[in-house]
Design brief:
The chain has 164 residues and is an all-alpha fold. It has ten helices and no strands.
Length: 164
Amino acid sequence: MSNYILYLSRYIVKKKTIKNQIFSYFENQKTNIDQLHFNVYPMYMALSDRIRTIINECGLTQKEFAENINVTDSYISKVLKDESGMANSTALLIEQLYSYSKNWIMTGDEPKFITGKKHNLSILQKKIIMDVEQMKESELKALLAFIESLKKIEIQTSRKQKTR
């Protein structure tokens, strides 16, 4: 049986029906399915399974996830049904927002998470940083002026509360 599993490890199973057939085969052979699931299944996660994993682990709805990565809900629905693939640029955006490796998203190859980047930023903070990175110089100046005005308001409010 280990030769069979080693042989299967070279494939990425995209269709759920094929995955079900693989597990049915091992069930019929009276294989410990829990052990099989632990040892084999992660190698065979389809793109849809990996995207579903990201959505679930981040505590998002499908719609929130789609909005965060600037795609339509119907596109994510197609990906989750294995009816569509994913562009590298979309996978890169997911990597930047959620710290899942673009390579893992596209192929399932480990490591699952990227290293060397800040993982402690919230999703909103990562989204804001991504938006700021795409701004023109004039937009950045306006944003900086807005942030400075917010700081001044905060300082003024803090001073008023201390004098009371």
